[in-house]
């Protein structure tokens, strides 16, 4: 609250304006904390909390807070924070137990408290402030309360009655996930946040454990539906459990399966039974003077933080919004949602990535322990390589060493950051892991590339990328997307590309590749002014073809290809591959994604044929494999062959990640050396889940299941993300697209930023004078302290009665 806002609020109190009458549905931490803050900020407010349970009844065990949240609580109500601080278990390490090893990363900062203790603190504070808390009382409906109160706060949990009563107002979306988990505790005192991955005979099981008092630790057991059923838990779950009753048989089996991690200690229960996590989202959190708070409004998977933490942050934000103008509740609720929603949605995106990683953990199990541990720590994309280096430099140094010697056992170079490690695809050696992604420049005339393409490719090659790729290059005139697309179907086109490959080879240490494409139903369009596709050329265009006569959006429907025509198109690809070799390319990539011809054969949304080239995935693969075989036969043995795919169509009934794994496996069996993993652009009604690195999990899954080299692409723009992806084993190469358009020397600048001068970040001779970071403003600072800064102790462990303790041995 600004000083002006505080003055305005004081003025309202001084003149005796009537204050708010507030009802809170739900006496959990979120509801009680909001009630306390609202009353503290204006004691004249009439605040009533309705809680259906007794004051001493609660489910769950420990609650974890981040330092950021605690800073807010400290400032908002020091009295509450002081009571919490006295009861906290604090630590800064994360331990990962995997395949007999314990991997430790420090510098994280956690505080946990028993849920019952937290409730007692908040209940006491509410009583001190004069909040009317009515225990064992069923609240009137939110609609009834709204008629007699200025504000109704519905903090009534994930199964919110308020939300269910008015779905048309809130627009709820409940995403019930696949994993099963059970909330337990143990009398074993863990001294750090602990992830346990146990590879049982039934499948992998994971434990999320952390201390919350001097006597107890939270112990959440989670596993996939498959593992859960294999172990027979589904037979126990069928029993009808009363409220408050725990699934004793499942707890007994968990204790047996996880006994080596309990060291003879007990598992403790509190309404413990199997649950499937529901991610709750709402289009709106407001309905008139009613507002949803905490789990009623949103949930985020427990693997990245507690729902209680989010609910208390909500409470603080809502109370702050009311202080600005509590005479206009509608405006205050609007301000609250506008300011709070972006924070929540960011958390939910991170939680979704974390949740999905644990759902598919069986595909990561098998990685070497150092890589698995890093993969787990960075699963949400919120924690990254640089972030962990800031927290615990020694941890990252150890990982860098491991990665370097695993990749280059005969190297004499000091371990660089992962993106500067060399890589070999077939007989093509790349000096580093960065690929300048295929980008269409739409600058060709009659398929002949000119200076704009030369400038882009040469700029990226001179700028340090290990491999630079041309934009989509048509295998025939009819296979162009626009009249300005490049081609490799005429001799003069070969000569134009030879000019570029010679420049790259003679002046840089980069490899260069060409992406071969047939437009299919996306052909005969104008150069796009915005987006990825233009409009139809109409009479100025040419006939388009596809597996089925299904149009893309407003474009004309393509002609369905006759089976006899497919061999000719396959030969067009083979002829273009031979031309690519003549033109001096090191790598060929076949475009089989993004809704172009080969992609439309693979997707059931665009391939509705009833012959041998449609129907089952095996049949839909038939023509793309025919093309791959033709190209593999034409392209010199030992030269790398890549294929780009759309791993998922982002539309119901389309290609799934399981399909993508099967497609990649079939491609590998037919001689493909690497899969460039993109997604979507197959149908215009797609609904991609955009976000930083949003396509990387598809590359990770294909790499893990097929064992083929994968290239991650899509919304990757920082060297931090590139290093994170590589070190976690999610991909082998990183394709950078738009960031290379922004900065053709992206790779060299990343090297300069960290002072790397090895072969993977070698500056070309004409740029060598700029290899050091330019001088910046500033001055040398004098030493004005008698003693230097004390080195930060980043490895704190929880010890009851002793607070935080000493550095832990690795």
Automatic annotation (TrEMBL):
<keyword id="KW-0560">Oxidoreductase</keyword>
<dbReference type="InterPro" id="IPR013785">
    <property type="entry name" value="Aldolase_TIM"/>
</dbReference>
<dbReference type="Pfam" id="PF00724">
    <property type="entry name" value="Oxidored_FMN"/>
</dbReference>
<dbReference type="InterPro" id="IPR044152">
    <property type="entry name" value="YqjM-like"/>
</dbReference>
<dbReference type="Pfam" id="PF01494">
    <property type="entry name" value="FAD_binding_3"/>
</dbReference>
<dbReference type="GO" id="GO:0004497">
    <property type="term" value="F:monooxygenase activity"/>
</dbReference>
<dbReference type="InterPro" id="IPR001155">
    <property type="entry name" value="OxRdtase_FMN_N"/>
</dbReference>
<keyword id="KW-0503">Monooxygenase</keyword>
<protein>
    <submittedName>
        <fullName>FAD-dependent monooxygenase</fullName>
    </submittedName>
</protein>
<dbReference type="InterPro" id="IPR002938">
    <property type="entry name" value="FAD-bd"/>
</dbReference>
<feature type="domain" description="FAD-binding">
    <location>
        <begin position="149"/>
        <end position="348"/>
    </location>
</feature>
<dbReference type="InterPro" id="IPR036188">
    <property type="entry name" value="FAD/NAD-bd_sf"/>
</dbReference>
<feature type="domain" description="NADH:flavin oxidoreductase/NADH oxidase N-terminal">
    <location>
        <begin position="419"/>
        <end position="751"/>
    </location>
</feature>
């Amino acid at each position: 609250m600004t000083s002006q806002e505080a003055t305005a609020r004081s003025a309202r109190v001084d003149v005796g304006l009537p204050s708010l009458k507030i009802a809170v549905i739900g006496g959990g931490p979120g509801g009680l904390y909001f009630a306390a803050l609202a009353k503290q900020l204006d004691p004249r407010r009439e605040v009533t909390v309705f809680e259906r349970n007794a004051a001493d009844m609660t489910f769950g065990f420990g609650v974890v807070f981040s330092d950021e949240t605690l800073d807010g609580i400290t400032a908002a109500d020091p009295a509450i924070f002081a009571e919490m601080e006295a009861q906290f278990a604090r630590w800064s390490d994360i331990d990962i137990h995997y395949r007999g090893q314990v991997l430790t990363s420090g510098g994280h900062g956690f505080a946990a408290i028993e849920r019952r203790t937290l409730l007692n603190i908040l209940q006491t504070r509410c009583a001190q402030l004069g909040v009317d808390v009515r225990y064992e009382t069923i609240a009137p409906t939110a609609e009834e309360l709204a008629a007699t109160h200025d504000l109704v706060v519905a903090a009534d949990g994930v199964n919110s009655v308020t939300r269910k009563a008015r779905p048309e107002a809130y627009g709820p979306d409940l995403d019930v996930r696949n994993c099963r988990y059970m909330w337990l505790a143990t009398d074993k005192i863990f001294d750090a946040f602990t992830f346990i991955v146990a590879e049982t005979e039934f499948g992998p099981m994971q434990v999320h454990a952390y201390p919350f008092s001097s006597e107890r630790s939270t112990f959440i057991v989670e596993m996939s539906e498959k593992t859960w059923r294999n172990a027979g838990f589904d037979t126990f779950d069928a029993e009808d459990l009363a409220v408050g009753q725990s699934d004793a048989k499942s707890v007994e089996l968990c204790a047996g399966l996880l006994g080596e991690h309990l060291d003879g200690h007990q598992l403790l229960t509190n309404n413990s039974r199997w649950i499937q996590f529901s991610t709750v989202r709402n289009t709106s959190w407001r309905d008139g003077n009613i507002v949803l708070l905490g789990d009623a409004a949103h949930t985020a998977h427990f693997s990245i933080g507690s729902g209680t933490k989010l609910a208390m942050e909500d409470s603080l934000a809502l109370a702050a919004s009311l202080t600005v103008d509590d005479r206009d509740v509608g405006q205050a609720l609007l301000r609250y949602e506008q300011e709070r929603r972006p924070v929540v949605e960011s958390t939910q995106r991170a939680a979704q990535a974390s949740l999905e990683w644990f759902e598919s953990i069986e595909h990561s199990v098998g990685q070497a322990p150092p890589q698995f541990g890093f993969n787990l720590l960075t699963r949400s994309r919120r924690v990254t390589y640089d972030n962990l280096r800031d927290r615990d430099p020694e941890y990252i140094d150890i990982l860098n060493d491991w990665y370097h010697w695993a990749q280059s056992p005969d190297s004499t170079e000091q371990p660089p950051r992962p993106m500067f490690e060399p890589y070999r695809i077939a007989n093509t050696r790349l000096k580093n892991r960065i690929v300048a992604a295929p980008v269409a420049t739409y600058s060709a005339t009659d398929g002949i590339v000119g200076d704009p393409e030369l400038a882009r490719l040469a700029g990226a090659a001179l700028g340090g990328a290990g491999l630079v790729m041309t934009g989509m290059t048509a295998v025939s005139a009819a296979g162009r997307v626009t009249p300005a697309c490049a081609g490799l179907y005429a001799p003069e086109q070969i000569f134009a590309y030879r000019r570029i490959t010679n420049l790259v080879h003679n002046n840089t240490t980069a490899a260069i590749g060409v992406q071969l494409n047939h437009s299919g139903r996306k052909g005969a369009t104008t150069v796009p002014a915005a987006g990825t596709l233009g409009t139809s050329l109409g009479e100025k265009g040419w006939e388009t073809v596809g597996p089925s006569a299904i149009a893309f959006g407003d474009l004309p429907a393509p002609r369905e290809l006759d089976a006899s025509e497919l061999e000719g198109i396959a030969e067009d690809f083979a002829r273009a591959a031979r031309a690519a070799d003549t033109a001096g390319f090191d790598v060929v990539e076949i475009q089989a994604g993004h809704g172009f011809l080969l992609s439309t054969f693979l997707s059931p949304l665009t391939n509705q044929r009833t012959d041998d080239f449609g129907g089952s995935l095996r049949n839909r693969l038939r023509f793309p494999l025919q093309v791959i075989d033709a190209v593999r036969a034409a392209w010199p043995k030992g030269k790398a062959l890549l294929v780009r795919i759309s791993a998922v169509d982002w539309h119901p009934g389309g290609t799934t990640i399981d399909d993508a794994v099967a497609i990649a496996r079939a491609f590998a069996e037919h001689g493909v050396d690497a899969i460039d993993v993109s997604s979507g652009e197959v149908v215009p009604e797609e609904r991609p889940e955009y976000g930083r690195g949003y396509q990387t999990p598809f590359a990770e899954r294909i790499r893990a299941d097929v064992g083929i080299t994968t290239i991650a692409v899509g919304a990757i723009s920082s060297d931090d993300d590139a290093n994170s992806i590589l070190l976690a084993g999610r991909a082998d190469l990183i394709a950078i697209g738009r960031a290379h358009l922004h900065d053709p020397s992206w790779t060299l600048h990343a090297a300069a930023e960290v002072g790397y001068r090895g072969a993977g970040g070698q500056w070309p001779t004409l740029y060598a004078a700029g290899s050091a970071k330019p001088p910046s403003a500033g001055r040398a600072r004098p030493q004005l302290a008698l003693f230097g800064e004390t080195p930060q102790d980043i490895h704190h462990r929880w010890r009851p009665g002793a607070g935080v303790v000493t550095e832990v041995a690795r």
